[in-house]
Amino acid sequence: MSLNKFYNTLNGQLEGLLSAERDWLANTANASALLFMELEDINWAGFYFLYGDELRLGPFQGKPACTRIPVGAGVCGAAVSTGESQLVDDVHQFPGHIACDAVSASEVVVPLYDEAGRCLGVLDVDSPSVARFSEEDLAGLQDFARVLLKSSDLPAS
Ligand code: SME
Question: Which of 55, 64, 113, 135 is geometrically suited to a Cys-Cys bond with 69, CB 3.0 to 4.6 A?
Answer without folding.
Answer: 55
